[in-house]
Structure formats: C-alpha cells, structure tokens
Amino acid sequence: MGPKRRHRIRKAILQWYGTCGRELPWRKTKNPYRVLVSEIMLQQTQVHRVLQKYPQFLRRFPDFPSLAHGRRSNVILAWRGMGYNNRAVRLHLLARQVVEKHHGRLPSSYEELIQLPGIGRCTANALLSLGGRNAAAVVDINVRRVFSRVPFAMDTTADLIPEKVAWTIAEELVPRGNAYTWNQALMDLGATICTKSAPKCGDCPVAKFCSSRKHMRPIRVRLSRSEPSYGGIPNRIHRGKIVEELRRLNGKGGITRETLGKRVLTKYTSHNEKWLKGILAGLEKDGLVKALGKNGERISLA
Fold it and tell me: Do 179 and 44 fall into the same domain?
C-alpha cells in the first residue's frame, strides 16, 4: 500500500470517527487502570454488557491497590454477568503483581506488560498507545476484518487474511502521536460498519478504497466446535452455572458438593459425582472455587 493511499485511508477513517465514533466512558480517561479494566472486560464480551458492568466494577475497585487487596471471591462476585470468569481471577492477580512489583503503577514497556496475567499483544499495545507517545498498533477481530476487506479482494464476508498479515498492515498504518484514537477508530469501523455478516458498505468512509466491496458476497459460516460436554451441554456452561450458584451465597460460606450438583444438573445422582469432581477440580485450579472442610465436601468461591 503506497504512502498516498495510506494517508487517504487514515484521513477518511479519522474524520468519520470524529463524527460517528461511539461515546464510551473508557475513551474519556487517560487513567491506565481504568483503560486496562475496560480492555480486559472487552475481551470476548459485547460492548453493551461492558457499559453496564464497567462503572459498577470501578465503584467497587477504583484503583490497583483496592483491587489487589480485595478478596478474590469479592472480585468474582463483582464480575457477575460478564462471563469468562477466569478474566476476573487474572485481573486480580495482575493488580497484585502491579502493587507488589511495580509500586502500584502499570509498567510502561511492552516486555513488562505482556508478563502480567491476562495481557497479550493487543491489550499491551492498546495501553502503550494511550499516552500518544507510542505508535503501537492494535489488531482485534474487528480490525483484522477491515484490513482483510479494504486492501484485498475477499470473496465472501467470512474470509479473513492471516492474523500475522493484519498485524503487518496495522503497523504500517498506525500514525505516530495519534495511535490511541486511530486504534479506537478502526475498532469502531469494524464493529459498527464493516461488520461480520452484513457490512454497511454504503456508510463506510473508505468504501472507495475497498477492494472487496463490489464482489464480496455475504455468507454465514457455522464452525463445528468439538468441546467437552455432559448431557449434551458444554462443560463451560456447567462451569458458569457452578460459579453463579456460588455467587448467590454472596461470600457467606459454601454449600455441599451434592447440593451444588443438584442445582447444576436437574437429575443429579451419585453417578454424576465423578464428573462434578472433575469440573470442580478444574475450577479450583483456575482459582475460581475452593473446597472447604476436612474432606472438601463444601464448595465456595475462591
């Protein structure tokens, strides 16, 4: 992609974002903690759900020290409704590391950031671009979709370029001194205009530069996903039900494994005990639950 075309694409997207970008609370702050919380919440969760939980979570845990010194069970309780509860555990561990190893301040280097729990390349670069000093590119699924369709002729809406190629394009296009705004603009473009199944090409600010617009055909691909299940229900759903049942206790003790099993499975019997123990062992390993008592018969949030 030549420099003139890069300049025109950047200009068109930034102008569009200036008038059509979403008003999101984490975009109004330069506080690294608040931006980090939003980034972790937005991993695998839709924006409308994050908008509800984000202010509630910040009221309960407004900074790194309050989160680091809070009980893990209370962090998991505060994460209610977000799903993928492992993120709450990793965020709690991250806060403890920041307080213990970095004096309560988020590290400013990529190498240190990616050593923290729950932070990968995308989240680290989003944080690095926050101050405007680092030209750090960000590639999530929305950005990858934009960089698949605009420079390359995609046959269907399901087609994507390799992630490695998307990162190369992102690093070529990211403007110095304005990386955070640019990254947010790209994510908005992919989330609201260049969508997965029904792109709004007529409203796209870079439609005239798009190589896919004229011949890309809509297609919905359902990937067959093989995953551990029980009774026809994926184990990840059962895990979520278990955590939610324990949340109902509001941190007040635990319940017996048998009672928990009956709440999770409609027809729980002793034949299901081995399966339940396996699920609970996985949750305990992930730091979400703990076994209480001499024989571990009672279960609570970690």
Answer: yes
Point out which residues pair with 217 in neighbouring strands. 156
Q: Which two tokens stand for residue 257?
A: 């494994």
Q: Are residues 131 and 274 in the same domain?
A: no
Terminal alpha carbon distance of the chain? 51
In a domain? residue 149: yes
| Model pLDDT for residues 85-110, shown as the tens digit of each residue | 999 999 999 999 999 999 999 999 99
Cβ proximity of 44 and 122 under 8 Å: no
The distance from CA 89 to its chain's CA centroid, rounded to whole angstroms, is 14
Give the pLDDT score at 251: 75
Type of residue numbered 260: L
Q: With beta carbons less than 8 A apart as the criterion, state whether 76 and 301 touch.
A: yes
Q: Is the same domain home to 18 and 72?
A: yes
Asked if 297 is an active-site residue, the reply is no
The domain boundary residue, chosen from 209, 239, 268: 209
Residue 24 sits in the same domain as residue 123: yes
Is 131 within a domain? yes
Q: How many CA atoms lie within 13 A of 261 on its CB side?
A: 20
Q: Phi/psi at 207 (nearest 5 deg)?
A: -60, -40
pLDDT of residue 222: 60
Structural domain includes residue 253:
yes
Domain extent at residue 286: 229-301
Q: Does residue 217 fall inside a structural domain?
A: no
Digit-coded pLDDT (tens) for 142-162: 999 999 999 999 999 999 999
Counted domains in the chain = 2
For 52-89, the pLDDT digits (tens) are 999 999 999 999 999 999 999 999 999 999 999 999 99
Write the DSSP symbol of residue 108. -
Of 23, 39, 227, 245, which is the active-site residue? 39
Q: Is the pTM of this model over 0.85?
A: yes
Residue in 290, 272, 270 with CA at minimum distance from that of residue 280: 290
* φ and ψ of 36, to 5 deg: -60, -45
Examine the pLDDT at 217 and tell me if it is beyond 80. yes
